[in-house]
Every structure is written in C-alpha cells, then in structure tokens.
Amino acid sequence: MRYKCILAYDGTSYYGFQIQEDLPTIELELKKALKNAFGLDIKVYGSGRTDKGVHAKGQVIHFDLESKIPAEGVKRALNSFLPKDIYISSVEVVNEEFHARFSAKLKEYRYYINVKEYDPLTIHYMPFYNYLDLSLMEDAMKLFLGTHDFKGFASASIDERKDTVKTIFQADMNILDGKVEFIFVGTAFLKYQIRRMMGLLIDIGRGYYKKDKILEVLEKKDPSISHRVIEPTGLYLYKVTY
Amino acid sequence: MRYKCILAYDGTSYYGFQIQEDLPTIELELKKALKNAFGLDIKVYGSGRTDKGVHAKGQVIHFDLESKIPAEGVKRALNSFLPKDIYISSVEVVNEEFHARFSAKLKEYRYYINVKEYDPLTIHYMPFYNYLDLSLMEDAMKLFLGTHDFKGFASASIDERKDTVKTIFQADMNILDGKVEFIFVGTAFLKYQIRRMMGLLIDIGRGYYKKDKILEVLEKKDPSISHRVIEPTGLYLYKVTY
Questions:
Q1: Which of B1, B7, B3, B81 is nearest to B237 (CA)?
Q2: Which CATH number fits domain A2-94: 3.40.50.970, 2.140.10.30, 3.30.70.580, 3.40.605.10?
Q3: What residues are paired with A59 via a beta bridge?
Q4: What's the CA gap between A19 and A189, in Å, rounded?
Q5: Is the distance from CB of B62 to CB of B47 less than 8 angstroms?
Q6: What amino acid positions of B are annotated as catalytic residues?
Q7: pTM here?
Q8: Which residues contact A35 (CB under 8 A, 6 or more apart)?
Q9: Which of A21, A59, A221, B71 is deepest in the core (most CB within 10 A)?
Q10: Would you call B10 and A87 a contact, using CB atoms and an 8 Å cutoff?
C-alpha cells in the first residue's frame, strides 16, 4: 500500500530535508518514526529537498507499507513518534502510480519578511528588512513570470546536465500587518532559486539595482551575477499540487 | 549616569532571565554585551525574572555607567554585541531614584494559545490546546481580578516571608485569528503565578473544573491544589509601567 502524507515542519533545528548520515534532518526523523511505528526500514520519498533552516507548511512525501493500515492510524502512529516540530497533517492511501516527486505538477513557495521593527522573536521565521521600496519589488517580481532558463538564479554547483528551464505561473506580493508575503508558484524550482530571486528583489527594493538586473541574470545564465542567496529562515514550502 | 532599557527576547534558547553561572541566560548576555561595549563589569537590574522558555516584549532593566554616553549610542553598542534573539528597543537616561524592580508600578503579562490546528512552527511561542470552552474561561478569569492572597497559585518553594497578597487590575481574553490572547495586568506576580492561573483556566475550559475551583485555591492558599504549571512557551512579559 502506498501512503501520501502532507507535513509541516519548523526547519530551525534541522540540516534540511535530505538525510545526511546522523545529522538531524527531516528525512531521518521520518525514517526513525516509521521504524518505531512499523518496525521496518522504510524508504521515504519527498516532493523535493528543503535547505537547512527552510520551513514547510505543505511538504509531501510517500512511502510503501506491506500491510494495509487505515490512513488515520498511520497519521496517529507517526505523529506520536515524530519530534514536536514536525507534524503530519494528512495521510491518504494512493495508487502505486503516485510519486511524491515525479507526480508533482506545481510547487508553491512563500517568503516572509518583517518590515515593521526588528523583532528578536521572529528571526527564525521572517528576517527583518527595512528601507525597502515595496512597489519597485512588486513590479520587478513580475519579470519572473513565464518560462525562462533560471540557471543564473541556481546554485553555482548545479549539475551541468540538469534542465534549468522552468515556468513560473504566479509571482505575487502581499503587504500584511507589518510583514510582507511573497508567493511563487511554478513547475519546479532549482536549488537556491527562490533565495537568489528574493536576494535580488531585496536589492532592487533598496535601490541598489533596477529591475532590468533580473533580465540580465536570466540572459547571462551565470549564478555569480545574482550573488546573494538570502537567508533560509523566511522561506516556506507552502503547497505541492498533483 | 543611570540608563533604563526596554528589551525584547525570545526565551527559547535561555535558562531564564537570572544569571546561573555560565548557563545561557538573558542577564549573562546583557553583562557580556556591557563588558564588550564599555570594558567594565556592570551590574544589571531587571524588573523581575522570567522563567526558562518565557519570552519578553517589554522587559525593563537599568544599569549605571560612569561616563555620559548618549542613549542612542548605548542602544547601538549593546545591540551590536547582543545575540540576535535579544534586542534593546529603547534606552533612556533616568535619574538615580529610578530602579527597574522597585520603581515598577504595574506589570503586564500575556499568554497565547493556538486553538486552530496543531502547528509545529509555533510550538515555542503558542502551545496548542483544543476542545476548550472559551466562554467558560473568559468568565472564570474575572475571579482573579482584585486583591487576593495568591499563595495558592505560587511556586510551592516560595519563601514563607514573602508577601503573597497582590492585586490584579485587568484579566481579559481576546479571540484572534486561530489564537487566543490572555492579558493580565497587576502590581506584581509571584513565581509560577500566571502559569498556574493559566493551567487552571485551561482545565476549566476543558470542563475538568468549575470556576469555583479558583476561589478554593485562593482560600486554601495551598499550591498543591492548583497542581498544573502550564508550559512557559506561551508566556510573554509584555510591559512594565513606572
């Protein structure tokens, strides 16, 4: 039986999603919980990785169990063994064609910044940036919409063979009470892509660059131009659509 | 010159306000920042202690400096040496009669609970409680108003000679989007007092006790009756009035 789970986690205490030997990672905690709940070493497939310090509201994983256990029972069992900062909000039985990574159609990421006053209570969830011209940022971020080669916004260490052409369907900014929310929905995102896109948007908001800089990075396809990878703390894997 | 500072901190990583040798505490970080900024061992006086894991939005401290440094300079210097989860939001020069603890007239504490859905991202800031009858809690908390001997809500280890008669001027509950805010304003609060008051309120909200239990604890003055000290994570020292 194949199980699909939606999970949320606070990335503050973890070295990202992907297992790295014994370091605390989301994947390791999921494997430990599965082992404790079902007594077996079970492979976990995530919709994608999240970096160290990045949070998730709607990460998706799948795994297979030999026996048929009701979805609600799987949810309770796993949550009882998971640390308090990882929580499975939904479990459903899916057919064997479902794959958390390869079946994903759309991914939604959100980035939050605090623009009100420095707040030591939200530093792990919403970095503080002031003196930003938000309307310049909102205008500039529309240049990310559509299909582009995002290689210039990817990690410099990205595999040469990787397809770096991706499509972004939504790029919106919402000004909330004291904080600003940036929403990006696309087919898929490269390692560091949103953190580099946000880094450049911040620099545009500060007046260091004009929005044309985005076009330049897209054209030159050289990650060393969009040099700033913004901190992971404001980034949330919000939703994966299948 | 005497300086009064208002500070906010995230209590998650600290063993409370009060210095305990080399353990991470707010007072130790303040002393280290003062030493780094001014090269001297300077005594810090707080308005009161906060327990391990308790946060502050408006803690107040005072200290004396031999030389006259502009308040804004003191603020910048200290913030540059403090960890990111402690922030001094205001510094002002006060006269020598001011004392952070003894001059305090009123203290405001707030407690937040998440009543929507378990959220692994807010566990250190707002514990999750469900199935609560909030109207029963709002009604019951009014019994805390006025002058009472709060010994029954204090730490069991409290000094016998301590004056346990305190006055509460405000006890309000606000239902916000998915969370509930409890506001307590009083002359002073005993160790564990708000966490025990909140523990009993939660049990009233769950239907384990009627509101008369509050009167019983106040009358019997025995902390073992109000046995539950709720977690520190939802508690904020919000404001100190002089």
A1: B7
A2: 3.30.70.580
A3: A7
A4: 20
A5: no
A6: 51
A7: 0.91
A8: A41, A42
A9: A59
A10: no
Chain length of chain A: 242
A233: nearest CA in chain B? B121
Q: What one-character DSSP code corresponds to residue A153?
A: G
Q: Is B100 helix (H, G, I), strand (E, B) or coil?
A: coil
DSSP assigned state of A128:
B
* B84 close contact with A: CB closer than 8 A: yes
Judge whether B93 is closer than 8 Å to chain A, CB to CB: no
Look up A139 and say whether it is catalytic.
no
Predicted confidence pLDDT, tens digits, chain A (242 residues): 999 999 999 999 999 999 999 999 999 999 999 999 999 899 999 999 999 999 999 999 999 999 889 999 999 999 999 999 999 999 999 999 999 999 999 999 999 999 999 999 999 999 999 999 999 999 999 999 999 999 999 988 877 788 999 999 999 999 998 999 999 999 999 999 999 999 999 999 999 999 999 999 999 998 887 678 999 999 999 999 99
Beta carbons of B26 and B5 less than 8 angstroms apart: no
Residue B148, helix vs strand vs coil: strand
Within chain A, strands assigned E span: 2-9, 45-46, 55-64, 86-94, 106-114, 146-149, 165-175, 179-186, 235-241
User: How far, CA to CA in Å, does B111 sit from each of A115, B98, B183, B193, B200?
Assistant: 25, 28, 7, 12, 13
Interatomic CA distance for residues A44 and B99, integer angstroms: 58
3-state secondary structure of B159: coil
Helix (H, G, I), strand (E, B) or coil at A196: helix
| CB-based contact A87 B120, cutoff 8 Å | yes
Bridge pairing between strands B55-64 and B165-175: unpaired
What type of residue sits at position B105?
Answer: K
And the tokens for A221?
């396809």
Query: How far apart, in whole angstroms, are the C-alpha atoms of residue A30 and residue A47?
Result: 14
Instruction: Decide: A47 and A240 in contact? Cβ < 8 Å.
Output: yes
CA angle B117, B119, B122 (to 5 degrees): 130
Which of A10, A22, A41, A51 is catalytic? The answer is: A51
- Integer angstrom CA distances of residue B157 from A53, A159, B46, B131, B222: 40, 62, 22, 32, 11
Break chain B into its structural domains and give their ranges.
2-94, 106-241
Q: Measured between CA atoms, how close is B220 to chain A, in angstroms?
A: 37
Instruction: Give the best residue of A121, A176, A231, A233 to mutate against chain B (max B CB count within 10 A).
Output: A121
Chain A residue whose CA is closest to B117: A89
Considering the domain B106-241 in this protein, what is its CATH number? 3.30.70.660
ipTM of the complex: 0.88
